Amino acid sequence: MTHNNYHVVIIGGGGTGIATMYDLCLRGFKVTLIEKGELTSGTTGRHHGQLHCGARYAMGDKNIAKECMEESAILRKIAPNAIEYNMGMFVALSDDDMQYKENFIQSCLNAGIPAKEIPTSLAFEYEKNLNQNIKASVLVPDGTIDPWRLAISFAAGALKTGNATIKTYHQVISINKKSNNIESVTVINHITNKKEIIKADAFINAGGPFSGNIAKLADIDIPVSPSPGTMLAIKKRISNMVVSRLHKAGDGDIVVPQRQLTIIGSTQWISDNPDINRVPQKDIEFLTNAAIEIFPCFKDYEYHTAWAAARPLYGKHNNSEEVRNLSRDFEAIDHEQTDNIKNMISIVGGKATTLRGMGEVVSDLLCKKISLDIKGKTSEIILPHYREYYRGGYNGQSN
Amino acid sequence: MDNQINTYEISIKRCDDNYLKFKLNLDKSLTIIDALDEIRVNLDPSITYRHSCHHGSCGTCACIINGKERLACMTFLSDFEDCNITIEPLNSFKIISDLVVDISSMINKMEGSSYLRESELHKDSIKPYGIITYNRFENCIECGSCVSACPVKSNFIGPAPLASINRELNKTHDEESIKKLKGKAFKKDGVDACDKHYLCSKVCPTKVYPAKHINDLRKLKEK
Q1: Residue A367 contacts residue B95 (beta carbons within 8 Å)
Q2: Which residues in chain B have Cβ-Cβ distances shorter than 8 Å to A188?
Q3: Are residues A214 and A233 in the same domain?
Q4: Which of A209, A234, B115, B171 could be A226's S-S partner, Cβ–Cβ 3.0 to 4.6 Å?
Q5: End-to-end CA distance of chain A
Q6: pTM
């Protein structure tokens, strides 16, 4: 078998699955992406849209921070139509925040993030609606993502290679093994209501918060905690930059502007059903108050909506405090090593900013497993315009 | 927000033109997307609809709800007095399945290589080193509502594409591009095909007001 006929099935059409499809297609693999709904209809589409430069993670995990810095710079280069790049600011409001500041700036610099303290007077020049009582301000290269348009730019890139088939509204109902090899998946096509069997040489589980359920179909247990959080928006743009609270990552400490909206995120709890994420009533008041601390005028504008999405955190945990401490890192699990299943990989954890990097890591792992020396190229090629996705074929029909 | 559980009867138009009816108890603070998720997860997994952001930014979930084009994620059950709600796919587009339509006929006519524009906020203030202008995404989320609501169904490029031409004319200074854009706007299926029903502006969920853009183009043509 030549590698050009090597067929990979990816389960899950969120940011990770789509970016993995794109990477493998560029390397010459034939890829079929299976998604039970519309692309990014799970977690990816619903995130608050912060393009993380990594500063938020600098104190906790230098490697993640470094990775975010590198990946956010790459995304700004390859997907300019899907990013509002106006930089970001961390603001200190309390004495505790001020104490946090010293190590924060050094940690950012250690991770390669050009964090820079600026006089508060200048911070007000940049963002006139900021709380006038801020004690310090640190500038970082954050931005805002349009998650749908970023993801479909990657999908457009994959379709352009001619190697991708995207099957939306197709749900995997069984994973069919023969001894220690997966031969095929059985999917139900929700458009025709018919079952199909899709054979492949390798299978990648990129189900995000659903990846535990998908692995179960292959009798594999992987540690993932679907961990939803609430986001809330008002009908007014009150800043150009992403503004974060200068303290240890917690609930309600990031304000993300986007189009005509301002979004405050988020909270965190544990769920066993990532399909239904109801907004807890208490989150509305909590998030509104948290936003008012940073931007007092937040209260003056009309409520837009609040929504929730389940983060796909790597690890098994039972309470939200434990989950807050869980790493936002991701892990590509080779099930040959962990479960003696030769041709399946699960990619768990991570976040929107690192989608490209996650796709590259999974693709590298697959290449290594089948002893192919092909390098990823996704960091060097400008993605097609997101509108090209619609031109490439659409909704369960593309190939 | 006050909570109140009501029994809703939700009718969803399927590709075969039949309506599937579902009766379910839902909190009136929920949205149409929440209701569709509830139906798909608990009652009928074969229901197909588009959705992604759940806050009115991606534009995927536009459909016709009780006779009017709306974003399902920004339409709350409490917006209706009646507990009977009918959900139908957008008009004017090829139906793929249930509420899923193929909007590529509109997307292919959209102008503008950049989806970004200058932010109106703090336009004249000092900016950090490296930022020349604060930028932001366009208001138009390309949801197709205006195209669906427009009564002119043939030989018309459509409200969203015309609005995109006008936006682009305001952005570009390149004479060749301006000439091309004007050419498209002033063609037979351009501004002249608009019958001034203004429904495009009425249904637009993000205040693009395509009719205003079409009017700008009309004035430009008459100049």
Answers
A1: no
A2: 45
A3: no
A4: A209
A5: 21
A6: 0.97
Mean pLDDT of chain A: 94
Cα gap A73→A75, rounded to integer Å: 6
- Domain of A98: which CATH number? 3.30.9.10
| Residues A138 and A68 both lie in one domain | yes
Range(s) of chain B covered by CATH 1.10.1060.10: 105-222
Counting one residue from chain A and one from chain B, the pairs whose CB atoms sit within 8 A come to 165
| Model pLDDT for residues A360-395, shown as the tens digit of each residue | 999 999 999 999 999 999 999 999 999 999 986 554
- Print the domain residue range for A17: 1-49+146-223+319-399
Domain of residue A27, CATH code? 3.50.50.60
* Interface contact flag, B125 A126, Cβ < 8 Å: yes
What's the topology of domain B5-102?
Ubiquitin-like (UB roll) (3.10.20)
Question: What's the rounded mean pLDDT across residues A310-336?
Answer: 79
Q: pLDDT tier at B17 (50, 70, 90 boundaries)? A: confident
CA distance B15 to chain A (A): 9
Domain total in chain A = 2
Beta carbons of A138 and A117 less than 8 angstroms apart: yes
Q: Is the dihedral of CA B39, B42, B47, B49 positive or negative?
A: positive
For the domain B105-222, what is the CATH superfamily, name and number?
Answer: Alpha-helical ferredoxin (1.10.1060.10)
Closest-CA distance, A3 to chain B, in angstroms, reads: 33
Cα distance between residue B76 and residue B32, in whole Å: 6
| Token couple for A139 | 């500038």
Q: Identify each DSSP E strand in B99-216 by its residue range.
A: 100-102, 116-118, 135-137
Domain with CATH 3.10.20.30 in chain B: 5-102
pLDDT of residue A396: 42
- Closest residue in B to A258 (Cα–Cα): B136
Percent with pLDDT over 70 in chain A = 95
The whole-number pLDDT of residue A380 equals 97
Tell me if A57 is assigned to some domain. no
The reported pLDDT for the residue numbered B107 is: 97
Q: In A, which residues are within 8 Å of B31 by CB distance?
A: 305
Using omega within 30 degrees of 0 as the cis cutoff, is the peptide bond preceding A266 cis?
yes
pLDDT classification of A326: cutoffs 50, 70, 90: low
Q: Are residues A202 and A229 in the same domain?
A: no
Choosing from A281, A314, A347, the residue where a domain stops is A314
Q: Give the mean pLDDT of chain B.
A: 96
Q: Which of B37, B103, B137 is closest, CB to CB, to A84?
A: B137
Cα–Cα nearest to B36, from B13, B18, B59:
B13
pLDDT value of position B195:
96
What CA–CA distance (Å, rounded) separates A387 from A216? Answer: 36
pLDDT at A133: 96
Residue B170 sits at the chain A interface (C-beta within 8 Å): no
Chain A stretch 50-89, residues whose beta carbon is closer than 8 A to a beta carbon of chain B = 80-82, 84-87
